[in-house]
Amino acid sequence: MTGPAAGANGTDGPQDGPAELRARLERTGYLVDEGLAIACFLTLRLHRPLFCEGDAGVGKTALAPALADVLGAPLIRLQCYEGIDASQALYDWDFPRQLLHLRAAEAAGITEADRLESELYSRRFLIARPLLQAVETQPSVLLVDEIDRADDEFEAFLLELLSEYTVTVPELGTLRAQSPPVVILTSNRTREVHDALKRRCLYHWFDHPGYDRELAIVRRRQPQVTARLAEQVTAVVQRLRTENLLKPPGVAETIDWAEALDALGATELDAELAFATLGSVLKYREDAERARSLDLSAILAARGA
């Protein structure tokens, strides 16, 4: 099957192979290497979640909307944080609307307890959070972003959900996905995620790209930036990553820096302008001080500045 999306066939996606999927992802503006293309293809073919791990800003989160674009499916995002629980991720009851309905029923003289209970706990009053939305929406792409920020209890709950793609609401019964959503989980590795969750998933480590690939990404994402400026910005960021920084800049920061310099009207980069705009690429004072100790003029000269 070579259709452009998976609309009529769940989320199977392109079936020609990893190379075809890679080409389709790149047409969305998301550039992938062979390893990631294979991982994405197997995620679609085997209906397995894809666990994406790596430093912040290397493109993990951006993979999900790119896949949603390829599949013609809605993107559903669950942003994880410390203390997140099932009611915030799965579903909750709309208590204000239930109370209004109860008052209206009482005003209408409806006093049958069983009838009122069945009406109050019907699907119309259920608020679907991201996980339930993904189970009920076919096709869909579910992004579970920064799972490493959640706690162990939430991981265990998520593992159970991803095993069966079902949600049990005591008042309504079991809701089951007709076809599994495509699931992308991301982690910045601020802590180790439990092995049980990782075993349920395919895995891909996102490293910082080499110069040529990063330059291609910058040119694709910021086409208005001059070729010379894009080359220089990429070269400096590549050099910064070799330093002992608290937070090495990711591809996202490279793109932001190129955009900021273009907004200033720059067509090429010099050391003075680089130092003046370091806040676009480095987010810690110590890292900025380290960068100012470098001979950026020599780095730029090596790129033919």
Describe what you observe in this structure:
With 305 residues, the protein is an alpha/beta fold. 47% of the residues lie in helices and 13% in strands. It contains 15 helices and 9 strands. It has a 5-stranded parallel beta sheet, with helices on both faces. A two-stranded antiparallel sheet has the order 3-4. Strand 6 and strand 7 (173-176) form a beta hairpin. The longest helix has 14 residues, at 227-240. The radius of gyration is 24 Å and the shape is elongated.
Question: Which sequence of SSEs, written as H and E, runs from N to C?
Answer: HHEHEHEHHEHEHEEEHEHHHHHH
Structural class: alpha/beta
- Percent in helix: 40-55%
How would you write the strand order of the largest sheet?
Answer: 2-5-8-1-9
Concise structural overview:
This protein is of the alpha/beta class and 305 residues long. The chain is built from 15 helices and 9 strands.
Topology readout:
Blueprint: H1 18-27, H2 34-46, E1 50-54, H3 60-71, E2 75-79, H4 86-89, E3 91-93, H5 95-107, H6 113-120, E4 126-128, H7 130-136, E5 141-145, H8 152-164, E6 166-169, E7 173-176, E8 182-187, H9 195-199, E9 202-206, H10 211-221, H11 227-240, H12 251-263, H13 271-276, H14 285-292, H15 296-302
Parallel strand pairs: 1-8, 1-9, 2-5, 5-8
Antiparallel strand pairs: 3-4, 6-7
